[in-house]
Design goal:
By secondary structure, the chain is mainly beta. The chain has one helix at about 265-275, and strands at about 15, 20-25, 30, 40-45, 55-60, 60, 70, 75-80, 85, 95-105, 120-125, 130-140, 150-160, 165-175, 180-185, 195, 205, 210-220. Strands 6, 7, 8, 9, 10, 11, 12, 13, 14, 15, 16, 17 and 18 form a 13-stranded antiparallel sheet that branches.
Amino acid sequence: MYEFRFCNKYRAAFICCGNDFLVVGNDGSVQGEVFASLDDALIITVTNPDGEQRGWRTNRYIGRDGSVSIGVDGGVVASPDGMELIISENALDHAAVFKVTSFDEDLFPEFPQVPDGHFGGGMEIGVTPETILNIEAKLVFPKPADAPDGSFYYVYRRTVNSDGRVWFETIDHAFVNDEGDKVVTASPPFPGVIGTIGVIDGTSGVISGLVSQYYYLVWVYNQLIEPYATQGVIAGYVYRLVPPGPGEIDPILPMGIKGRLTCEDFWRKARKQVP
């Protein structure tokens, strides 16, 4: 059961929804029940005595617990303290339920390992399990009061491996909006919030049928240089390891593999291997 409210400039009226009726009060309240699925859109048309019509459509519904159902039309899910999840039109093939809340730095003992990084905010997103986003969603954080102008912002997602190890996935970088009061994710080149979300892992807790995911806003500041990303993600395939030459350092590559990769060799083979 969801409660619908809208502005009603006219006298109390009845809205017919199939075999169901809703009573509209002069204060904009709506009384009654409509039996439908979250995929259904609510379309309201009000006609005044002069024949003027006003229409409104939505498939964004707010539950009594503060959760929000978003359908194919997209919408915004917000927390009381200014966190927002923005979902674009056609990002979802089917309706999904979301809930956004904030958390403090001391919720977990771990923190993203960013040199000179500071906690800027935490966003917990509860979502229907295995929800697929076809279009990237935007995360919006209130601008940290202690972050100087010119700071650079990163967004990380906390996750836990099957063996219990905690690591932080680089999700995005973010920029202050024109008004100067919000920090909004801004990929590419980072992956952003897209694809399958709400995957149950060691981090995720399931509350009221929603899977919780935890996103960190981290800010860094260096007054000697222009703000730019020093953290990032490199994706690709390693096809050959080349031993270091005379006087060269033997670097440690991810997964504990030592060696170096020549760019020429990588791109020559990548063109043959990657569609």
